[in-house]
Specification:
With 568 residues, this protein is an alpha/beta fold. The protein is 62% helix and 10% strand. The protein has a six-stranded mixed beta sheet with strand order 6-7-8-3-9-10, sandwiched between helices. Strands 2-1-4-5 form a four-stranded antiparallel beta sheet, covered by helices on one side. The longest helix is centred in the middle third of the chain and has 53 residues, at 207-259. It is elongated and about 120 Å long.
Length: 568
């Protein structure tokens, strides 16, 4: 389709010189005065309808060709944007967690929704314009050279000035396009926060503050748009100025030639017509600078995403179903730019089916330790093993099949209850299996009470459900996956007493016969854990059962005492 569009665009451009070419014979032979009784002997006198018919035929054919070429190139542009956007999204899904931690989500969204459109325009519309207008200019210049090479050379003296203007304007436009894309990402981020933080915004009276933030970004975008408009608007008048100089020089030279009988009226009118027709393709080439520079700036942004390395697949071993033994051997990890390691010399051996609680002050490394298990990050030193196999030797898909996660931040999709429970690898689960998982998660009663039951769409991140209901859906999803290893990250911290009771019952059902890592700030929820591991500044400082740690009267006992005082 691209080849068809380019071929037809070239054909349309090749027909451009035909109209001025008709002017010479029309003027030289068609408007010849005759005496009384003299018989017309020229073709144009005998058949005056020929030239008008040819003109209509040329314009009709050129219109059909142009329409077909434009349709073909529009098809290519739409398909290109569609395929490129899909490729970007698929690539994004395979990027490591570090990318999402370091890159604002709004910037990624802008790349997929806005920047890719600019590439589509640059790759097709700009390309077609360049080819069509360049060929038109070449054809018109060839006819000009044929008519009068001296006048043509006079015309071409302004070409270097036009090229200089185009280059200067292009540099300005690309710089403004880059800045505008960054500004669009910041605007999207500000808009996201204004939507997601509505409760805080309303309760704390932040409307004016957020309005000022958005106004600042909006004003910045206005400045970029205005500077872009100035640069784009300056291009055409400057080109026309230099063309007018060339036209004045041509008319002066032609008048001198006419005085010496070196040119005819037909030749001069044909030359001027052809020269004036050059304005349209020149204007087209000047106008293409803005979308071209936008496209080039957008391409830098888009391919920066596509060139970001995906998660490293270091392993090749498969694990059908793990027994659940987990070993952390001298594990250390530091986030980029951090002042100190998040984990240091962690030694931990978890038996199959054991429940191990990770506790300690904020920043102790609890969540980081849990994040290393599904290889969201790789340790800087040491080794983590499942059933004696190093994580680095396991295929990522095989490793993550062994793990289910229920976190404090319940992550749900704007889809049906059924689709949120039977998600990913469990998407083919039967209705009976989905209902059984919902029942085990204490979610079946409230699901049946929803307007459309399991087919009810729950809104963005489950916004139509209560916190406890969202958490029980997440537990049902984990139950249906039936993974041998479970990570619970503050799964009951944000719930009321009744919801916590229902969720706790569901969690006990979920934890049965599974190796479980529990991250908890409320120590009352993990007193029955098989082992409690206390982390302080990334190091394991204590490990044992609840009663043992209380008897030691050390870090855990002080944390427990402090929480008891607060609760009392």
């Amino acid at each position: 389709m691209l080849a068809v569009g380019l071929l037809l665009s070239a054909l349309a451009a090749a027909m451009e010189p035909l109209l001025p070419a008709l002017m010479k014979p029309l003027l030289d032979n068609g408007f010849v005065p005759r005496g009384n009784g003299e018989v017309a002997d020229g073709l144009l006198q005998r058949a005056p309808w020929v030239v008008p018919l040819i003109i209509v035929g040329i314009m009709t054919l050129r219109g059909i060709i142009t329409f077909t070429a434009n349709y073909a190139m529009s098809w290519v542009q739409i398909r290109l944007v569609n395929d490129l956007r899909q490729q970007m999204f698929d690539h994004m899904l395979r990027l490591p967690m570090s990318f999402f931690e370091q890159t604002p989500s709004a910037r990624t969204i802008t790349r997929l929704t806005n920047d890719v459109n600019s590439i589509g325009g640059a790759a097709t519309t700009v390309g077609v314009t360049l080819i069509r207008e360049s060929l038109s200019i070449a054809g018109l210049l060839a006819w000009l050279l044929y008519l009068n090479w001296q006048l043509t050379l006079v015309t071409l003296t302004v070409a270097p000035f036009i090229a200089w203007v185009t280059k200067k304007v292009g540099v300005r436009l690309r710089n403004m396009s880059r800045a505008s894309q960054e500004g669009m990402g910041l605007m999207t981020q500000t808009l996201q926060e204004g939507i997601h933080c509505q409760k805080v915004l309303k309760v704390f009276g932040g409307q004016e503050q957020e309005s000022r933030r958005f106004a600042a970004v909006n004003e910045e975008m206005r400045g970029y748009a205005l500077r872009t408009a100035v640069a784009a608007a300056a291009g055409s008048p400057l080109v026309h100025f230099f063309v007018s100089i060339a036209l004045a020089a041509v008319i002066y030279t032609a008048l001198l030639q006419a005085g010496h009988g070196e040119t005819t009226v037909g030749s001069f009118v044909s030359f001027i017509t052809c020269m004036l027709m050059l304005l349209a393709p020149l204007r087209g080439l000047a106008g293409v600078n803005l979308p071209l520079q936008r496209g080039l700036a957008a391409a830098e942004s888009v391919f920066q995403l596509l060139d970001t390395p995906v998660e490293r697949e270091t392993g090749s071993r498969q694990l059908e179903r793990a027994s659940g033994r987990i070993e952390f051997v001298d594990v250390g990890f530091a986030y980029p730019g951090a002042e100190r390691p998040a984990l240091a010399e962690v030694q931990l051996d978890i038996a199959p089916g054991q429940t191990v609680a990770l506790v300690g002050p904020s920043g102790g490394g609890k969540s980081t330790l849990a994040a290393l298990l599904p290889r969201f990050h790789a340790p800087d030193r040491g080794e983590i093993r499942i059933d004696g196999i190093a994580l680095a030797d396991l295929e990522l898909s095989s490793l993550r099949r062994q793990i289910a996660i229920v976190s404090q931040e319940t992550l749900l999709f704007n889809d049906s209850v059924r689709a949120n429970i039977a998600y990913g690898a469990s998407a083919d689960a039967t209705d009976a299996q989905i209902e059984a998982a919902a029942k085990a998660a204490n979610a079946l009663d409230f699901i049946r009470a929803l307007p459309e039951g399991f087919d009810t769409v729950i809104g963005e991140n489950g916004g139509r459900l209560s916190g406890g209901q969202r958490q029980r859906l997440a537990i049902a999803r984990a139950i249906l996956k039936d993974a041998p290893i479970l990570i619970l990250d503050e799964a009951t911290s944000a719930l009321d007493n009744e919801s916590e009771r229902l969720v706790q019952e569901a969690l006990e059902h979920l934890m049965a016969d599974r190796t479980t890592l529990v991250i908890a700030h409320r120590l009352s929820t993990i007193e029955r854990a098989d082992r409690i591991v206390v982390l302080v500044q990334g190091r394991v400082v204590e490990s044992g059962r609840h009663e043992e740690l209380l008897a030691r009267n050390s870090v855990y006992a002080k944390l427990h005492q402090a929480q008891s005082v607060v609760a009392g």
